[in-house]
Amino acid sequence: MEKLVTKNITVSYEGMNIIEDISIELNKGEIVCILGVSGVGKTTLFNVISGLTKPDSGNVMLDDKDITGKAGNVSYMLQKDLLLPYKTIIDNVSLPLIIRGEKKQRAREQTIKYFEEFGLGGTENKYPNQLSGGMRQRAALLRTYLFSDQVALLDEPFSALDSITKSNLHQWFLNVMDQIKLSSLLITHDIDEAITLADRIYILAGKPGKIKEEIII
Asked: What crossing angle do the helices spanning 133-147 and 89-99 adopt, rounded to 10°?
């Protein structure tokens, strides 16, 4: 069952195409990796899907609804956790609910229910600088999920971690995704990471970036 589809996405800059004719699909509950070297246009594609950038041509469809150029329909997690250093973890994670108009206490009550499931129990009143990189990424992923449980765009979320932490977080990530069934597109340039995490892989390559191959894991 298709959750998100891009149809023939092309984006240019100063007269030159950055990505060209990109058509991909993400099914409900899937983890799909966009694999490619730096500079091939992976983040440009994510900016289009998130609605931050409007393509020169093509469409983005979410549940058969055209969301091209419309932000706020899918969640977007960048490489850095971007947790606010002056807010506690519970208040950092609650931000999407507060932005949508929830009262702070109500947002905290809704958020705290997920802390054990995401391996964050006991961190509620800590500050980001008191957590390890892996724990901060868990908090960032929960915040991403609370922004939108429809589709998550994850832009190299594990790239800043050391290899042991990354390996442990991969297993945790798969376990959590198995529980919450969050349809996820994940950018990586790490082949092993793509094979470990993905149900399918799209290879993005060339200049301009094009989908060269689809691999089913």
From this structure: 20
- Beta bridge pairs of residue 67: none
Cα 217 to Cα 195: distance, rounded to the nearest angstrom: 7
What are the CA-CA distances from residue 207 to residues 11, 13, 125, 204 (Å)?
12, 13, 47, 10
Instruction: List, for residues 127-151, the tens digit of each pLDDT value.
Output: 999 998 888 888 988 998 888 778 9
Contact present, 112 and 124 (Cβ < 8 Å): yes
Portion of the chain with pLDDT greater than 90, in percent:
64
Q: Domains along the chain?
A: 2-74+148-216 (3.40.50.300), 83-142 (no CATH)
Q: Mean pLDDT across the stretch 54-70?
A: 95
How many CB atoms within 10 Å of residue 79?
Answer: 15
The conformation of residue 209, written as its DSSP 8-state character, comes to B
Phi and psi at 99, nearest 5°, equal -60, -35
What is the structure's pLDDT at 17? 95
Distance of alpha carbon 41 from alpha carbon 21, whole angstroms: 12
